[in-house]
Amino acid sequence: MTGAPQGLLTFAAIDADAALAAALATSRAGILAEIAASKLKGRGGAGFPTGVKWNLAAAAKGEVKFVVCNADEGEPGTFKDRVILSEVPDLVFAGMTIGGVAIGARRGILYLRGEYLYLRSPLEAVLARRRQRGLLGEGIGGGDIAFDIEIRMGSGAYVCGEETALIESLEGHRGEPRNRPPFPVDTGYFGRPTIVNNVETFACAAAIMAKGAAWFAAIGTERSTGPKLFSVSGDCARPGVYEFPMGITVAGLLAAVGGEGAKAVEVGGASGRCVPAAEFDRTICFEDASTGGSVIVFGPERDMLHVAKNFMEFFVEESCGQCAPCREGNAKILEGIEMLEQGRCSARYLSELETLGEVMQCASKCGLGQSSPNAFLSIVHHFRDEIMGRTASRSS
Fold first, then answer.
1. pLDDT, tens digit, for every residue of 25-49?
2. Domains along the chain?
3. Is 146 exposed, middle or buried (0-12, 13-18, 19+ CB in 10 A)?
């Protein structure tokens, strides 16, 4: 399978109607077994097994359950979900419907990023056509299954990409993460069992039902199956949305996008990790360099301290402020980076900032605070000579 800067190679070849028909022709247990056998993991970045999540929600007690599609896509450098919703929305809606059938839900919600308002009208038109064709609403496929989907707009908060903060937003509250447990599969939207999956995950679920779990599991690695979409940006000749099998090396991706000679690659967006040129043989998959889809290429002239500052400014702005490790920690790390720029940060204080980042990874309440120090820590680790060397020259 090769990458392409435009066009969704695998998804474009999948018949959404055939995927839904295959799901309707089997039992709920059959759908759950197929998704589990595919070893599909969530494409939003966390990599939680989709089959496990759906099975837990299916087994949860309650007559009312919900399916939520996370289309908030707020990670810097990520734009592949926008392309999926533009090019193959039927596949996403079919995947949501399949998820609804599997867990016994009658209602689905697409939580659409506020900046993607321009997509709402065409997506509503797709939903209307699906209702007219008997693919949504009452009596789907001529049977007794009922499931419908509505679109709700996000408010622009990065933290709402976290599933419990997203649910809080849907309920009309301030977007703040909840304590877990309980988890959404037991106590989600308005206290009901809820599955929350990424746009690409639902599209993959439909593809699996159309072509089979064995087909999907044969692509990628043993622990990271299937094809993956990557949003590639930065210092490369051919930025865009690419499709590769999970497990491609960083070097292989760079060759395809015209990024040879790069100094580093940020895998996973602002919350990801910086991979230096010496480690371009690493593989992009859940067991190595994991990503929800963002790949940012940095050329040889890039100032890596400036890169770290840019990311930390973003997290200081986007922290919900609910927990002290994230609220205070991001601000202190940004302050330390500014001290480095001014030649006022000692090696000892830099070490203390690294310790702070490691504490944040363990003590923060949600994924935002747990991952926000990642880029800073990896940049300091791999480019310490560049950072401290420049500081020393400014201090002399």
1. 999 999 999 999 999 999 988 899 9
2. 9-217 (3.40.50.11540), 227-298 (3.10.20.600), 304-395 (1.20.1440.230)
3. middle
